[in-house]
């Protein structure tokens, strides 16, 4: 039986990897994947707590997160496609017209 | 009577009509509206006068209250009028003389492009003046007081395209502000002391609560007198009136001779009870009046502009009225106010007729010999000059003599001698004007000599009516006769309380004998005749003489000609000082403090913006980093709590 903090450590690791990816990677698709990683880190915590506390709400929440994540990826990919059509690149450091 | 509101309402209606639609009306219609409004006001006043006379003397007071103007806590002011014999005299003078001057104006202003505007202002003035004299409390009076001030400003600067005219308008307005400041303080102090502004309530409370000489009443009356000094052009605030001659001549006749400038005298007479409780203020009023009377008369001796001589004469005559009020002879003061309205309006209108005939010439050195060409103007002007000089049986004789005599019997010997000297000066400068304008050789510019023409009927008729009034106007108050003092008896209920107070302690209530009165009356006529005789010798018999005298006393002559350099003194002391102060304030407060704060605020945000905008890099990952940092901070904060 894996104790609760084991799940939480893995979840935190996944989250930090996601955050780091969002902050440092230039490729928009990779950034999108890292966001998914953060969402799934949260999902892992939900499920772990759900089992620990014998409460199904956490698992219900995970379904919601998955649905939202699917929608988000759809929109995100559409944006990336449009970006590529306009700039011929999906590197976020090259797309910086909105600045002061 | 409740219909008293109609009296100011008619001129106001005329103002609205001519002010809003005057451009679309023909000149004839504009004149009809303006004169018709004044005629209706005069008729209403006559009707009320008749009603007033039908009551017994002690019931001749009406106080129509129209509505509560404002009520704040204990403070409540009604829009109310006070109709008593004093008001009635003033209303009749304002509407009567005003009506004549309106008619005269239709002739005088005939070719002016601002015809409708002129009559709109003139009607507005009449409305404000009537509110002033009808007012039942100090605040309503103040409304009229400021209203006439505004109209005075508008009409002095009527020909505003002329720099001197608009300057004169501003000068009148600003100098009057000084007086009005005192007047406002007086209103505040009155309310603070009595808790009301209603005339009758104030006087009633003052009689109950105060003894003669109490400080508060003295302060109130002195402050009120500051207002009167400004409005009625007394020393030291008289400087605006001579400059006010820049306005059209009928305006000078109506506003700066017959009505508005007498508002101060009216106000002092209206508050006679308060003044009677303040012997010090009475003394100040008498002294200032007497000093002004003589001072202005000396300046009038040498001025060469026909209207300016009359302006200084007005200042001087107003001084006599204040002298009368100051020695407790309120009836005499109001009597002189009334007769002065007749003959001074006539003098100005006559001067206007001369100016009109000569195509705008105002310098008496370029007049002379106009008697034959302008007979109506000459004879009416002569009548007015005799009246102002105080020759029997013209109006001015009775009123001026009463003031002089009352000054003497109340024990003001010095003031009497000064005022008598002033009367001689008056006779001299008036006949200097008559002789140089109408007699002797013609010095008229040959160019305009051809065009000299007698005034049209619309101007001649008011001259004649006023000439008759200048003759008979004094007969309502004849001394020494049984039942001669009709005006005095009519006004008696108004001044009853004040005169009771004044005669209380002293014995001067006992009247001097008829014989003494006769002697002093003869003396003032002799003095006036001496003034006229001297003027005749100098200006008709030996026309080179004035120049020789002027050369001999060149220094004194220059002082008089330059009006004692009072304008220059005020310019140097008051105007320059205030300018300097304004510049200093501008430099240190406006520029150094306020502008610095405002500009500094702008500069701060501009600089902050130029630096902070670099944070907005356009790189999404930078924003994500700051979101992360923010989230971490929030979590830390949550943990710390």
TrEMBL record, chain A:
Q: Which residues cross the membrane?
A: 6-24, 29-49, 61-84
Gene3D superfamilies given in the database record: 1.10.287.3510
Q: Could you name the domain of life of the organism this protein comes from? A: Bacteria
Record bears the keyword Coiled coil: no
| Membrane-topology annotation of the record | Multi-pass membrane protein
* GO BP terms: ATP synthesis coupled electron transport
Tell me which stretches of the chain form a coiled coil: none
**Pfam families recorded:** Oxidored_q2
Tell me a GO cellular component.
NADH dehydrogenase complex
Intracellular or extracellular location(s): Cell membrane; Membrane
Keywords from UniProt, A to Z, are: Cell inner membrane, Cell membrane, Membrane, NAD, Quinone, Translocase, Transmembrane, Transmembrane helix, Transport, Ubiquinone
Question: Which Enzyme Commission numbers does its entry carry?
Answer: 7.1.1.-
GO molecular function annotation: NADH dehydrogenase (quinone) (non-electrogenic) activity; quinone binding
Write out the catalysed reaction. Answer: a quinone + NADH + 5 H(+)(in) = a quinol + NAD(+) + 4 H(+)(out)
Give the quaternary structure.
NDH-1 is composed of 14 different subunits. Subunits NuoA, H, J, K, L, M, N constitute the membrane sector of the complex.
Question: What PANTHER family does the annotation carry?
Answer: NADH DEHYDROGENASE SUBUNIT 4L-RELATED, NADH-UBIQUINONE OXIDOREDUCTASE SUBUNIT ND4L
The record's similarity note reads: Belongs to the complex I subunit 4L family.
This chain's function reads:
NDH-1 shuttles electrons from NADH, via FMN and iron-sulfur (Fe-S) centers, to quinones in the respiratory chain. The immediate electron acceptor for the enzyme in this species is believed to be ubiquinone. Couples the redox reaction to proton translocation (for every two electrons transferred, four hydrogen ions are translocated across the cytoplasmic membrane), and thus conserves the redox energy in a proton gradient.
Tell me the protein's name: NADH-quinone oxidoreductase subunit K
Species: Desulfacinum hydrothermale DSM 13146
From which lineage does this chain's organism come?
Answer: Bacteria, Pseudomonadati, Thermodesulfobacteriota, Syntrophobacteria, Syntrophobacterales
Automatic annotation (TrEMBL), chain B:
Q: Which keywords are on file for this protein?
A: Membrane, Transmembrane, Transmembrane helix
Tell me the Gene3D superfamilies matching this sequence. 1.20.5.2700
Topology relative to the lipid bilayer, per the entry, is: Multi-pass membrane protein
- Per the database record, which ranges form the NADH:quinone oxidoreductase/Mrp antiporter transmembrane domain? 135-426
What InterPro entries does the database record attribute to this sequence? NADHpl_OxRdtase_5_subgr (IPR018393), ND/Mrp_TM (IPR001750), NU5C-like (IPR003945), Proton_antipo_N (IPR001516)
- Indicate the transmembrane segments per the record: 6-23, 30-53, 86-106, 118-136, 142-160, 172-195, 215-241, 253-278, 284-302, 309-335, 341-358, 378-398, 413-435, 456-476, 519-539, 623-640
GO terms for cellular component? endomembrane system; membrane
Q: Which GO terms describe its biological process?
A: ATP synthesis coupled electron transport; electron transport coupled proton transport
For this protein, the record's Pfam families field holds: Proton_antipo_M, Proton_antipo_N
Asked if Iron-sulfur is a keyword of the record, the answer is: no
Question: Could you tell me which residue ranges the NADH-Ubiquinone oxidoreductase (complex I) chain 5 N-terminal domain spans?
Answer: 69-119
What's the protein here called? NADH dehydrogenase subunit L
